């Protein structure tokens, strides 16, 4: 059971944004903007409760992933594979991780780059074609991934998160919000035909690859003791809560424009045009700036996470040169594949929504692996999950699995 000291509070006045900001930078991407704007336009404030659940679930799972890494000194993939003594199980887990990260993140990267290009176009770069904007974004991301140092990449991502905060939360100042209706959205309910969107909201927030990214980024940042874990918990709580507020702000923007007829320009352009027609050019610029920050931050974190995981799985614990080489090549491959999809104008919006829902279905499997590792006293000793942590983790897994099962049954015509 985790000791009380491990959960002791750390003064917020001493807080500085840390590795958990990478989690926020990762999950506030074009997928989040699309899913949240679509939720607001289609269902008003009715699905805000899903974001509250997703934010709390993210904090619970990310804290576990960070604790495993801090105490063991291993990445999450390393810890999971080491705990799997059976070779067949180990290969199965490795294949699942590879499929969900290496393949999935390459697909997400197309949406990240396309979303950044869409934001640049809204800011006035419309004289350039979407393909050229996507190519320029991809080249910049590739350069940063290849030559960037982890320390200043982290600072860049923190800056992008803070810029997004000013854009999306600050954007509420230029629109008229019905706060009574907002509060009603925190009562759990599923309006007709909203299940797919609710799962997308959860899937876009509780992102499986963030578990691995966070674990890789906290190693060496916090001491493996009670005070270090408390500082990590504070970092996670504040960073992820900020991300949850950003998502809710985007839903609110969508809901505020829901009464307008769609322009037919596509969801990302459409929400910007709706905002402009209701609240003027400043609202459109605010949304575009947020979209650029969301897209580019995720365009960096998706390849970084994939590179970390593949290096952990194949690089060899005692060969840092080989691990670095695998990390760089894997991250670059994700950027290149995503840029190619974006350059050839594969429509990102439908892919993003489908991918986010698939994320919500995949999450219970990876979260179950995390719970298993976080509860192992052989690795974590006194810092292994206690009954409360296990109960909260299981609740998150069960709710996500239930939503996913209902979606599958409805798709098969077995659920009304």
UniProtKB/TrEMBL annotation:
GO biological process, one term: iron ion transmembrane transport
Transmembrane intervals: 20-41, 47-70, 91-108, 128-147, 156-175, 195-216, 237-258, 285-310, 330-346, 352-375, 387-409
Keywords tagged on the record: Membrane, Symport, Transmembrane, Transmembrane helix, Transport
Principal subcellular localisation of the protein: membrane
GO molecular function: cadmium ion transmembrane transporter activity; manganese ion transmembrane transporter activity; symporter activity
Keyword Ligase annotated: no
Record GO cellular component, one term: plasma membrane
Localization of this protein: Membrane
Membrane protein topology class: Multi-pass membrane protein
Protein name listed in UniProt: Divalent metal cation transporter
Organism, scientific name: Sphingomonas ursincola
């Amino acid at each position: 059971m985790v000791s009380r000291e491990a959960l002791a509070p750390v003064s917020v006045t001493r807080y500085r944004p840390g590795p958990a900001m990478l989690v926020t930078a990762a999950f506030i991407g074009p997928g989040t903007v699309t899913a949240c704007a679509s939720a607001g336009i289609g269902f008003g404030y009715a699905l805000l409760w899903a974001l509250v659940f997703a934010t709390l679930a993210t904090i619970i799972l990310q804290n576990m992933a960070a604790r495993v890494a801090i105490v063991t000194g291993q990445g999450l993939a390393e810890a999971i594979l080491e705990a799997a003594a059976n070779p067949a199980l180990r290969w199965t887990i490795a294949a699942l991780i590879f499929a969900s990260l290496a393949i999935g993140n390459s697909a997400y990267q197309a949406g990240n780059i396309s979303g950044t290009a869409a934001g640049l176009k809204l800011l006035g770069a419309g004289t350039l074609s979407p393909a050229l904007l996507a190519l320029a974004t991809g080249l910049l991301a590739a350069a940063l991934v290849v030559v960037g140092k982890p320390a200043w990449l982290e600072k860049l991502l923190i800056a992008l998160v803070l810029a997004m905060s000013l854009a999306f939360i600050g954007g509420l100042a230029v629109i008229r919000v019905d706060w009574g209706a907002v509060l009603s959205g925190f009562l759990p309910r599923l309006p007709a035909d909203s299940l797919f969107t609710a799962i997308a909201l959860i899937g876009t927030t509780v992102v499986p690859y963030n578990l691995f990214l966070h674990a890789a980024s906290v190693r060496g940042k916090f001491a493996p003791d009670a005070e270090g874990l408390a500082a990590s918990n504070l970092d996670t709580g504040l960073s992820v809560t900020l991300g949850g507020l950003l998502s809710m702000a985007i839903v609110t923007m969508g809901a505020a424009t829901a009464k307008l007829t769609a322009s037919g320009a596509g969801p990302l352009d459409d929400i910007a045009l709706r905002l402009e027609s209701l609240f003027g050019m400043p609202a459109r610029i605010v949304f575009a700036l947020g979209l650029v920050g969301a897209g580019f931050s995720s365009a960096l974190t998706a390849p970084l996470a994939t590179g970390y995981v593949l290096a952990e799985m194949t690089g060899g614990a005692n060969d840092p040169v080989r691990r670095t080489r695998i990390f760089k090549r894997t991250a670059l491959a994700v950027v290149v594949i995503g840029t190619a999809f974006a350059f050839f104008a594969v429509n990102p919006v439908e892919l993003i929504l489908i991918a986010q829902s698939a994320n919500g279905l995949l999450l219970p499997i990876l979260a179950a692996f995390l719970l298993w590792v976080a509860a192992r006293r052989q690795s974590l000793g006194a810092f292994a999950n206690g009954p409360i942590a296990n109960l909260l983790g299981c609740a998150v897994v069960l709710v996500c699995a239930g939503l996913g099962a209902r979606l599958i049954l409805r798709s098969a015509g077995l659920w009304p």
